[in-house]
Specification:
The complex is a heterodimer of chains A (264) and B (270). Chain A is mostly helical and 264 residues long. Chain A is built from ten helices and no strands. Chain A is 87% helix and 0% strand. With 270 residues, chain B is of the alpha/beta class. Chain B has one domain: Rossmann fold, CATH 3.40.50.300. In chain B, 36% of the residues lie in helices and 24% in strands. In chain B, the strands form two sheets. Chain B has a six-stranded mixed sheet with strand order 6-7-8-3-9-10, sandwiched between helices. The longest helix of chain B has 18 residues. Classes of the chains: A mainly alpha (264), B alpha/beta (270). Chains A and B meet through helix 6 of A and helix 2 and helix 3 of B.
Chain lengths: 264, 270
């Protein structure tokens, strides 16, 4: 009997453990918000993190945005050609990017590039007792280490997503207009008339802001909560990437269902 | 409590996951002294140090530091008190992303409004005291273990604390570095008029520099005295510890079922 119930017990324990961790993460978010004042009073601390999380992620975001735009241009042209409406390529590329691909993919790349690095840094600081040393010097590690990294990510994310979308639009233009020969004027004018600022672009910005909060919170929480050993930090980095990707996709579904209900 | 006593510990208990780690510790540490807390690995020495620093809340008893009850303090009060404390961690715990200079300057920049010129002078003075003024531009990764410990020592005393705590200051050091750190602990303590508590299991270096020693075993103080009293002690625990004997009150083997039962009696498998 015990063997039969064992998988269910394990499943139950796993579920309870996940709920506990979610609770800890929410409490941790409140602690970060509570001690965030120093991040803005001492702006260089946050600017440094914006540089490490945002500026140093520019290359991967711009290059991947360009390639996604190139692929969207190719695939979009091939499909639109069947319906004789290739001039709508600009609208297709821009809407795909601003509504979905820009915020989602930029958040996923951000989690892989910057989130993992933040988790590793905080985790290693914990493993080498740097956080404890700071605490013993009467310097709150959440205010000094965690909050600037959290806000660095939150502030960087919408800009990175916007840049991702812009590079994608440029990629779509490059493949559609320059290489395939879609009309230049049609590409841009269709985009202008088909993309609504509040409905499409602003909703995309809101999405990227929410993803920025989620990914940054996961990155700092996993680092701060990591087991202070080499294996523990390595597991925390893996959890950051996996949890961030799944959370971004789940949040995207929820946000999309609220934001774009008018389309259905 | 007399004003001469900086740290007063009464009946201190601490449990971890229901397992008793400290079981009724009593200590009085006078101002100006260098005191060693000694004992084998896992006996509760570091836990005791963390209770004194307010990093751990005891499950019973009381720690009073400079007339303040550490256990009852709010976060802000504890941080105010910690500004007067310095701590040297086992492997230095230097901030690896900034230079030696910035490590020592860290507490000064966080807690004072001094100008950069003043901070520079103070940092170089502290580094001079540990013999590393010439290394101020190096990164922590470029330092040897002994040098890193000395930089951490300079950082711990940057704000001229009234109490300096050392967690295994001699661990992993070669004999020369060990002697240097030992002498620095003594000299800095006397020069700053501070009080030092040192958790260690290095008997000979400690006996040479400290004023008083407590021996901890299984969460209790089993012996105490001045270095001369400890050397002359016939207490079996002290004798075993000081002379590094394999046999004595401290057993070599971790508690286990009998060998016969384990190998022949089909004892439970782990």
């Amino acid at each position: 009997m015990a063997d039969l119930t064992s998988p269910f017990r394990k499943l139950g324990h796993l579920a309870v453990d996940r709920i506990w961790r979610l609770g800890f993460a929410v409490r941790f978010l409140f602690a970060v918000l509570r001690y965030s004042g120093a991040s803005f009073r001492r702006l260089p601390l946050t600017l440094r993190e914006i540089y490490f999380s945002g500026v140093l992620s520019l290359l991967i975001i711009m290059v991947s945005g360009l390639f996604v735009g190139l692929v969207l241009g190719l695939q979009g042209y091939e499909i639109l050609q069947r319906f004789g409406s290739t001039e709508a390529l600009g609208t297709l590329v821009a809407l795909s990017l601003t509504r979905e691909l820009g915020p989602v993919l930029a958040a996923i790349f951000f989690a892989s590039r910057a989130g993992s690095s933040v988790t590793a840094e905080i985790g290693l600081m914990k493993a080498t007792e740097q956080l404890k040393a700071m605490d013993m010097m009467a310097v709150n590690p959440i205010a000094r280490v965690v909050a600037p990294r959290f806000w660095g990510g939150v502030i960087s994310m919408p800009f990175l997503a916007a840049l991702f979308s812009a590079m994608g639009v440029l990629g779509g233009w490059l493949i559609g207009v320059v290489f395939i020969g879609v009309d230049d004027g049609a590409y841009w004018s269709q985009m202008q008339s088909g993309v609504d600022f509040r409905y499409d672009i602003w909703n995309g910005v809101v999405k990227s802001f929410v993803f920025g909060i989620a990914v940054s919170l996961i990155a700092v929480f996993e680092g701060y909560d990591s087991v202070p050993t080499a294996e523990g930090v390595s597991r925390a980095i893996t959890r950051t990437v996996v949890t961030s990707v799944l959370t971004v996709l789940a949040l995207d579904f929820v946000l999309t269902s609220f934001m774009f209900r008018g389309a259905s | 409590m007399s004003d001469d006593i900086l740290v007063d510990i009464e009946e201190l208990h601490f449990n971890y996951d229901g397992r008793p780690v400290l079981q009724g510790i009593n200590m009085k540490i006078p101002r100006g002294q260098v005191v060693a807390i000694m004992g084998g690995s896992g006996c509760g020495k570091t836990t005791l140090l963390r209770c004194i620093g307010g990093q751990l809340k005891p499950t019973g008893g009381m720690v009073r530091l400079d007339q303040h009850r550490v256990c009852n303090m709010s976060h802000t009060e504890l941080y105010d008190l910690r500004r007067k404390m310095g701590m040297l961690f086992q492997f230095g715990a230097l901030f690896t992303d900034v230079s030696v200079f910035d490590n020592v300057a860290f507490p000064l920049r966080e807690h004072t409004d001094l100008s950069e010129a003043m901070i520079r002078d103070l940092v170089l003075m502290k580094l001079e005291a540990v013999g590393l003024r010439g290394a101020h531009a190096l990164m922590p990764g470029e330092l040897s273990g002994g040098m890193a410990r000395r930089v951490a020592l300079a950082r711990a005393v940057a704000l001229d604390p009234m109490l300096v705590m050392y967690d295994e200051p001699f661990a992993g050091l070669d004999p020369i570095a060990l002697g240097v750190i030992g002498q620095l602990i003594r000299k800095l303590n006397d020069a700053l008029g501070a009080t030092s508590i040192m958790v260690t299991h290095d008997v000979h270096e400690s006996l040479a520099i400290v004023d008083y020693i407590y021996f901890v075993s299984q969460g209790r103080i089993v012996a105490e005295g001045t270095p001369d009293e400890i050397r002359a002690s016939d207490d079996p625990f002290v004798h075993q510890f000081v002379h590094a004997e394999v046999d004595g009150p401290v057993h070599f083997d971790y508690p286990a079922p009998s060998v016969v039962k384990e190998f022949l009696g089909g004892g439970a498998r782990g």
